[in-house]
Amino acid sequence: MNFLNIIFYYVILIPISHLPYPLLYGFSDFLYVLMYKVIRYRKDVVLQNIANSFPDKSKQEQLQIASDFYRHFCDLIVESLKVFSISKKEVDQ
């Protein structure tokens, strides 16, 4: 198992973390489509939570909130990957 972790870290995470931000956000958009449209990752739970939190919103508004949530969630995932290779200069910016 340790070997698989090393492969995952050095072959996937590190190269992705070195990508410039425009490419990272492009990857985030791909991840959004994959999670929201294809895999539908916990979509029923998210929609139910939004319906409980915003009962006065229309169904269309609730779907827009869910879409915005998934977009933000994917951005956070991708930005978290950048921490593996970010320089102090980039952090200061």
For the structure shown, list the relevant keywords.
0% strand, 93 residues, 80% helix, mainly alpha
Structure description:
The protein is mainly α. The chain is about 80% helix and about 0% strand. It is built from five helices and no strands. The protein has helices at about 1-15, 20-40, 45-55, 60-80, 90. α2 packs across α4. The termini are far apart. The relative contact order is 0.14.
Brief synopsis:
Helix content is about 80%, strand content about 0%.
SSE blueprint and pairings:
Elements (H helix, E strand, L loop, with lengths): L1 H16 L3 H18 L4 H11 L5 H24 L5 H5 L1
Helix pairs in contact: 2-4, 3-4
Shape category: elongated
Radius of gyration: 17 Å
Q: Helix segment count? A: 5
Oligomerization state: single chain
Measured as a percent range, the helix fraction is: over 70%
| Ends distance | 38 Å
Taking the sheet with the most strands, its summary is: none
Order of helical and strand elements: HHHHH
